[in-house]
Write a structure and sequence with these properties.
Among the domains are: 9-120, Nucleotidyltransferase, domain 5, CATH 3.30.420; 243-380, Nucleotidyltransferase, domain 5 (2-Layer Sandwich); 455-530, no CATH class; 540-587, OB fold (Dihydrolipoamide Acetyltransferase, E2P) (Beta Barrel). The radius of gyration is 36 Å and the shape is flat. Strands 3-2-1-4-5 form a five-stranded mixed sheet. It has a five-stranded mixed sheet with strand order 11-10-9-12-13, with helices on both faces. It has a five-stranded antiparallel sheet with strand order 17-16-15-14-18, with no helix packed on it. The two termini are 57 Å apart. By secondary structure, it is an alpha+beta fold.
Length: 631
């Protein structure tokens, strides 16, 4: 029962479903309050919802609170300054005005401790009833006691402890041998343990096969072997600018709106073009840059090698290349080494820009043409020449001032024969370099072969910058998922897997990310964890703060199992769509008394006048109907 001689405390909270509050006195609840939120209030910012919940709780317990001082506790930090801050909108004046006459102070309480009011503000989705409670019974202790009685070594230890010849920390507790208070289990391999009691032909091989077929061990244990799959080089082209490779260099300082470089590499001559782009780029903008800087100079390529960037996998890009007669060769999932040539070019161009710009990184766009010239005129060990000479058949012109007096005239036939012989020599050098590369790579790799119908486990790479539904994270997550059935052999180092329906993942994988599954296969393929653009997505732990960046609402998300420095800015609307179950309004932190959520803009002009006129018309209509009932 309430004691009106003692102070009251109102603990309140609000969510996207409703309002909740509890009236407390000396740590004991006196009354509870819960009410669903109105539809018109769902779109309000968290600050306004929390304010409405506070007002409704105070008005609900008016008989208890009127005429005496009480305390209001809320997990919304901005409301701590409710009585001191300036009221900026008409709704704030409306709701705060309902508190006039009450004597109270507002205290902040963290959401982790405000559990009662938080639970009252939630929507109860439980539909079943608790009819019975059952708990599992484990017979491990009884089986272990029985096993210790059959183990000769433990029987000897048991007797020594009883006789006093084996001192602490050895002991016998409840009939079982313990060491330092823990149950003692002797260290022995499964084969050694079985060999102590049994013997039958091929016993060691059968035990090894049984352990090798353990599904849990295969999914969670690491492999200590050379990476699977020998090097499978792409065919060496025969003509310059007929087979090219594409990739992007991102996260550069913004200069005139440019933050991305499109790297285009001729696979035969190693000649490169580096095209600056603005972010975000689309398949249409990349295609326009490709036609302007590549097709205009070198014509339409026969094939393009790239990774599985969303631009290159889009329907627009695929259809455009099909109409041009260009074949697309994309890397398999989780294996960017297939596009290693552009990856190497990206590393070199970034190194050049870093050296050119020094402590002025925002000058990279100015020095990009010189970096491209330096790259194309540099000696390539695989070519044993420069890319410029391979493409144009001559050495690059000197940057020094021209010195007249040296001219040479050759016959056209001799020039063309020399050109063809030079290109053939370049192709021979490329094949030699490729053979050397394959020989060095194969030393650290092993040959693995699959057949159609085999089952394989899939190793997923770490997440990209991304954000999505729940999955196991951290040190204890499984190393592999699956297994999945091999449905097709693409080549010696790539296979196609039968993934579960709805998997947003390319189904061709390099054997380096697979591991053969041993044992009985499952009846149906296991469900993949949440994946976005080929990466396992993490679980959001909390939202640190929010901001308005170029008109876009964003939240700073800290991911579960990641350090605070790995928090990323995500678009607010996309985050809500990807994580509908995440209580975003409860995780936001408010600083300096300012609401960081952004509600719908309040339109003041004309709104009150329209409402007043509508009320007057309704009043006149009601009076007219009352004066003339027959009408």
């Amino acid at each position: 029962m309430p004691d009106f001689a003692k102070p009251f405390i109102v603990e309140c909270d609000a969510s996207s479903h409703g309002f909740g509050a509890v009236l407390v006195q000396e740590g004991h609840p006196v009354a509870f309050f819960s009410r669903p939120i109105a539809t018109r209030h769902r779109a309000l910012a968290a600050y306004e919802r929390e304010l409405i919940g506070l007002v409704q709780a105070v008005r609900h317990w008016r008989p208890y609170l009127w005429g005496r001082h009480f305390i209001v506790r809320t997990d919304h930090y901005s409301l701590k300054y409710l009585l001191d801050q300036r009221l900026a909108t008409i709704p704030q004046h409306h709701w705060v005005g309902k508190l006039l006459g009450f004597d109270f102070s507002v205290e902040y309480r963290s959401g982790a401790t405000n559990v009662v009011a938080d639970a009252l503000s939630r929507c109860d989705t439980e539909e079943g009833e608790l009819l019975a409670i059952s708990a599992p019974r484990f017979d491990f202790i009884s089986r272990l006691r029985h096993a210790q009685a059959l183990d000769p070594s433990l029987v000897a230890i048991h007797d020594e402890v009883r006789a006093g010849t084996r001192a602490a920390p050895w002991a016998v507790t409840d009939g079982m041998v313990t060491f330092d208070g823990r149950l003692y289990i002797p260290a022995a391999s499964p084969w050694y343990t079985l060999h102590s009691y049994f013997h039958f032909p091929t016993m060691r091989r059968l035990v090894q096969d049984f352990v090798r077929a353990c599904a849990t061990c295969q999914r969670f244990k690491s492999e200590h072997l050379h990476p699977a799959g020998l090097l499978h080089p792409l065919p060496v082209p025969s003509v310059v600018w007929e087979d090219i490779a594409l990739d992007f260099v991102e996260a550069l300082p913004r200069v005139h709106g440019k933050t991305v470089i499109l790297s285009v590499v001729d696979r035969f001559s190693k000649y490169c073009h580096f095209i600056p782009l603005a972010h975000p780029y689309t398949a249409e903008s990349v295609a326009q840059a490709f036609f302007t800087d590549i097709v205009r100079l070198h014509g339409v390529p026969r094939s393009i090698v790239s990774d599985r960037d969303p631009v290159f996998t889009s329907a627009f890009w695929r259809e455009l290349m099909r109409l041009m007669g260009t074949k697309l060769h994309m890397s398999s999932a989780f294996h960017p080494q297939s596009d290693g040539q552009t990856e190497a070019a990206n590393r070199v161009i970034v190194m050049y820009l870093r050296c050119f710009t020094g402590d002025r990184p925002r000058h990279w766009l100015r020095w990009l043409p010189w970096a491209e010239y330096t790259y194309n005129t540099a000696y390539q060990s695989s070519l044993r020449d420069t890319p410029f000479r391979v493409v144009y058949g001559r050495a690059p012109p000197s940057i020094r001032s021209y010195e007249p007096g040296e001219t040479r005239v050759e016959a056209v036939a001799q020039e063309m024969e020399a050109r063809d012989a030079f290109l053939a020599d370049v192709r021979y050098r490329l094949e030699q370099a490729q053979a050397v590369q394959k020989r060095h790579c194969d030393r650290a790799h092993r040959m693995v072969s699959y057949q159609v119908g085999d089952w394989a486990l899939l190793r997923l790479r770490q997440r990209a910058a991304a954000s999505l539904p729940r999955t196991v994270t951290g040190k204890l997550k499984p190393r592999y998922v699956g297994p999945y059935r091999v449905s097709e052999l693409i080549n010696d180092v790539a296979v196609r897997l039968e993934l579960p329906p709805g998997a947003r993942l390319h189904d061709v994988f390099h054997v380096g990310v697979l591991k053969k599954f041993v044992g009985a296969p499952p009846t149906s393929p296991p469900v993949l964890p949440p994946i976005l653009d080929g990466a396992v997505v993490p679980d959001p732990a909390r939202v640190v703060r929010a901001r308005l960046a170029r008109g876009v609402r964003q939240v700073l998300v800290q991911w579960r199992g990641e350090p605070a420095a790995s928090a990323t800015w995500e678009d607010y609307d996309d985050f809500r769509d990807q994580h509908p179950a995440f209580q975003l309004e409860d995780e936001l932190v408010f600083e300096e008394g300012r609401d960081v959520m952004y509600g719908r803009p309040y339109v003041r002009r004309g709104r009150a006048r329209d409402v007043r006129r509508a009320r007057e018309r309704a009043k006149h209509a009601q009076e007219a109907s009352g004066a003339n009932p027959s009408g």
